[in-house]
Amino acid sequence: MTSVKSHSIEQRVISADAASTAVRAAVAKADELGLRINVAVCDSSGVLAAFLRMPGAFLHSVDIAIDKAYTSAGFGFPTSKWGAALTGDELLRAGLPLRPRLVIFSGGLPIKEGGVVIGGIGVSGASAAQDEICAQAGIDAIGL
């Protein structure tokens, strides 16, 4: 008997409910801190799953939030870690930040469940540290 080789793999992604909960929680944290942010959650493929823009948040931060979520989901680590990741490799340091949609400053976090990346959350509109605080509040709200 011959076995049939599969040509596909299963990929876990964040649920619509969890994505919605995460963006609402990030906005609630921003409101508590007196901030105005844009927040995005994408699935593990980098496809937008949820987005909220607070009234008064910077317009250009819309795309930045989406790209932070995309970057953190795609690489599986916080966007704040890029500085260290690029240290010591001058060609990588010079070229990688030129890639479209890659964000190398704080505010993007991977969303992991059981060690598996299921999505990413990105926040933009406040300071880098405040963006990351709001992103973490989104992750905390879904118990991850």
Give the % helix.
25-40%
Q: Globular, elongated, flat, extended or rod-shaped: what is the shape? A: globular
CATH topology: Beta-Lactamase
The largest β sheet comes out as:
4 strands, antiparallel
Name the CATH architecture.
2-Layer Sandwich
Count up the helices: 5
Mean pLDDT across the residues is 94
The class by helix and strand makeup works out as: alpha+beta
Strands, count: 4
Strand content: 15-25%
What is the domain tally? 1
Note the gap between the termini.
44 Å
Major β-sheet strand ordering: 2-1-4-3
CATH superfamily membership, which one? Answer: Haem-degrading domain
Q: State Rg.
A: 16 Å
Secondary-structure topology with pairs:
Blueprint: H1 16-32, E1 38-43, E2 48-53, H2 61-75, H3 82-86, H4 90-95, E3 108-113, E4 116-124, H5 128-141
Antiparallel strand pairs: 1-2, 1-4, 3-4
InterPro entries: GlcG_carb_metab_protein (IPR052517), PduO/GlcC-like (IPR005624), PduO/GlcC-like_sf (IPR038084)
Pfam families: HbpS-like
Protein name: Heme-binding protein
Provide a concise account of the structure shown:
With 144 residues, the chain is α+β, with helices and mostly antiparallel strands.
Outline the structure in words.
Pfam families: HbpS-like. This protein is an alpha+beta fold. It has one domain (16-141): Beta-Lactamase (2-Layer Sandwich). 40% of the residues lie in helices and 19% in strands. The protein is built from 5 helices and 4 strands; from the N terminus they run H-E-E-H-H-H-E-E-H. It has helices at residues 16-32, 61-75, 82-86, 90-95, 128-141; strands at residues 38-43, 48-53, 108-113, 116-124. A 4-stranded antiparallel β-sheet has the order 2-1-4-3. A hairpin with a 2-residue loop joins strand 3 (108-113) and strand 4 (116-124). Helix 1 packs across helix 5. The longest helix is centred in the N-terminal third of the chain and has 17 residues, at 16-32. The radius of gyration is 16 Å and the shape is globular.
